[in-house]
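Morning - iron/sulfur cluster inputs below, output right after.
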Amino acid sequence: MTPPPPPSFTTTNLDITLTKTQTQVKPSHGSCGCSTKTDTASAISEAMQARIDKHPCYSEEAHHHYARMHVAVAPACNIQCNYCNRKYDCANESRPGVVSELLTPEEAAHKVLVVAGKIPQMTVLGIAGPGDPLANPEKTFRTFELVAEKAPDIKLCLSTNGLMLPDYVDRIKQLNIDHVTITINMIDPEIGAKIYPWVHYRRKRYRGLEGVKILHERQMEGLQALQEADILCKVNSVLIPGINDEHMPEVNQAIRARGAFLHNIMPLISAPEHGTYFGLHGQRGPTPKELKAVQDKCAGNMKLMRHCRQCRADAVGLLGEDRSQEFTKTKFMAMSADYDLATRAAVHLSIEQTKAAIAAKKAATRPPAPTVPANSPKVLVAVSSKGGGLVNQHFGHAKEFMIYEVDATSATFVSHRKVADYCQSGYGEEATLTHIINTIADCKALLTAKVGPCPQKQLQAAGLIVIEAYDVIETVARQFYDEHILVTQG
Ligand code: CLF
Ligand code: SF4
């Protein structure tokens, strides 16, 4: 069989030499203080690193290179969240307002083998809905069993509201599901009562505080049990301004104490057209600034996930790219399952070589410590990237920008911001450009592979320095900082 082409960014075709930047490199100063800084005080052990290396959600670095897919096999749910409308997928791990095609475990397993053949960098299968996977245990576990039998190199991942988790930790362990997400929005039931109107537990419906207490106790018990079973646990928390925003550091503290590996604080998305209780009652989501402020408050305590894309329950591809429409039920059922372990291993090796080349480039350009002033200001920069950890996308093709916080010693990823596609069929839309500029107006610079003269002028008029480059993101960010911020600081 002819192996499929490797991903578009490999050591063989990656030009990681700075080719087009408009800035000048200062020969003696160097340019890169590429951050290995994380949101956790403690470093990750080698063994732990190996467990998360190819998981795009658990490792920020992996998300530039490896993809995940979800299969929608779990329709039922056992609680009600005020940000959820049962017409759509579970909003705990999905973008609200999206409906997935429901699959049987057999259909789902076939889909996984098809996708694993066509997208060999897909390394993780997640089950995240459209309801709660553990409210549908047989369908969920049957799917995992079928996939584990046929595709042993795919990591299994599960996302749940936690109500039934304590009952299934043994089964999760037995099936070698190494990554579990629990959505925990509160540890104070009084706050929980504003989020959850009812809970259905052991054939009985509990309303208000009574139900929330059960949910809270079961979530804590489940989290503890995962720790004892040595299963990696990520906690998702939906940030709801005025309800749990000030409470979030307490949630962070509690989950950390029970061994959670990663905290993903994600914004509430509530539009009236989604028909959720919050959407219909005017409950707003946080602004990017509010979200970042809460994330920063929790960042000292444990590792935070900031690259979540709130994907669909049938998502396919790298985080941020949506290839689900290539694999609708009609399409994938007509495709053959070309899963091949050796081909996949070769592609993964090529990705690892790319990662090593990027790491070497970063290390080689690190600036000497004495040149770094202690009190350098932090600034935000917006980056257009189509993956690989590179500035490698034309401004006009960006559907989202990666936001990095840069100072004299580090360049740290902080969030993504979605925008409408400016360059539609080659014609820039004026209103779209205004929207994009407003979205990144708090940034000092735009780092992009290329931008046309017209948008460039308007970006500059809005106060952004435009840097055209094709290189490792942190390298370009640090170079921009050294040449435009450090010099102005004197
Ligand atoms: Fe899926 Fe979730 Fe597993 Fe990832 S998603 S079940 S942990 S494989 Fe990832 Fe998507 Fe965010 Fe979820 S970006 S919504 S955190
Ligand atoms: Fe909806 Fe998910 Fe909450 Fe269930 S757990 S109500 S599916 S958001």
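Note: Residues 57, 68, 70, 93, 124, 126, 128, 157, 159, 179, 181, 234, 264, 308-311, 319 surround FE(8)-S(7) cluster (ligand 1) (CB under 6 Å).

O.
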